[in-house]
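User: I'm putting together notes for a lab meeting next week and I want to include a structural view of one of the chains we've been expressing. I don't have a solved structure, so I'd like a prediction I can at least talk through. The sequence is below, exactly as it appears in our construct file.
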Amino acid sequence: MATAVSDPEVSAEEQEPLLNPRERRYAVETQMHYMSRWRSIRIMYLTMFLSSVGFSIVIMSVWPYLQKIDPTADASFLGWIIASYSIGQMVASPLFGVWSNYRPRREPLVVSSAISVAANCLYAYVHVPHSYNKYYMLTARALVGFGAGNVAAVRSYIAGATSLTERTSAMANTSACQAIGFILGPVFQTCFTLIGEEGITWKLIHLQLNMYTAPVLFGAFLGVVNIILIFAIFREHRVDDMGRQYGSVNFAEESAGLDQDTEGNVDHVAVVAINFLFFVILFVFAVFETIATPLTMDMYSWTREEAVLYNGIILCVVGIESVVVFMVVKALSKKTGERAILLGGLLIILAGFFVLLPWGEKLPNIQWQEIKNNSIPQTTSTEMPTLALSLPAMKLAPQSTAQPVGCPVTQPWCFSTPKIYLAQYISSDVLIGLGYPVCNVMSYTLYSKILGPKPQGVYMGWLTASGSGARILGPVFVSQIYTHLGPRWAFSLICGVVTVSLFILEMVYKRLIAFSVRYGRVQEENC
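Assistant: Thanks for the context. Below is the predicted structure for the 527-residue chain, given as structure tokens.
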């Protein structure tokens, strides 16, 4: 005899008789169920937004705050602090993914949000200890990243709570919320600069409310609001690929039942391929973010302040472009399919980095101020005449205390590599800002569809960990190659990596189909 939905939080009027015995695990979804399901999904959108805000809301002020609280910290330690967020997320994502598979997803969501709140509060108090302050900041940022590992649980829930026809739109909305968080984080930070560096001190609790601590305390407040909303509004929902409500939300029973109901295995070749493609996509975008400031300072003789300002404006425009793309791709995927859009996105990224390859004749301006004690970088015989002709002018020029600008002589490639024109750089920004969001959304969407009806927490955890690993390795890779070999080698290698990913995509193209399509449960044109 069929039983009603067993969720104690679902009212009796929401419950419906189940279908025939062959499909006894499914229930007809009522309007109340539908509304509750989408309210819960929107809470996941908010969680994703807050996760990205937690990363970006302090990113511009980390370095001056670090110098203020611990003068012993140098630029190399700053790199570890920036990377600690991604390291924490990479470690936490599989753990929260496993947790969300076997327990109510509310648990990992609340715990991860609470960790982020505590980490933000720790960040606001890193000035209090008398020593090792930089390590407290490192710990705080690592814990914020650890809390952001809930991305795996969020995307796992959305994948399980949407039908095939709903999923592309839901994944696009999730990525859009993430992108908006990255855009608004620095905006919030800018607003809090009005408080000033000294701000207000509350001696009773040793709290300094200033331009460095106010953003993280605001982030902690948003995290508390998110926890309250998870308790008040979020409900567990699962639907199959055709949108039918599962008849149970008992997690042990559901997991066992899904194993019985699922005929066939997940295509692990397709799973590994998507993980690799996602790694490449996040890798090249991390390279793009990392190289922007040093590239523009070297090529266009921008000062540090100009590079931060102009690139901040450019990245903000790229972020807005990405949000628009997220919205457009939802409609476009219904006509062309996710695989074709993913292929197109990778081609656009390839074009974006290809455009950056130096091809002109004009060389960038050189930072002659860097030459000291008559030390001249090693150059080829063809480069020496140009250098020698420039030296007399340099010696006759009066010394200036202004910030040196141009391509530093410590990078020998500056004497032989042509300048990358500003039009090339802007064109590349536009192309990468178009291709990256397309690939990001399609990767998550295809991945969730390939996995099928089984709980996806573990798999989503590995996918998120792949992206975090890419964000760690990308800056290291590009900083080494760019510094020693120059932009020609750096961008050529990136083009090579994207080309390899295109070949891999072509090899597995026919395997990147939804689980239900693969086993003939629904037609391909409906997914």
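A couple of points you could mention at the meeting. The domain at 264-369+404-527 is CATH 1.20.1250.20 (Growth Hormone; Chain: A;). The first strand starts at residue 26 and ends at 27.

User: Perfect, that's what I needed.
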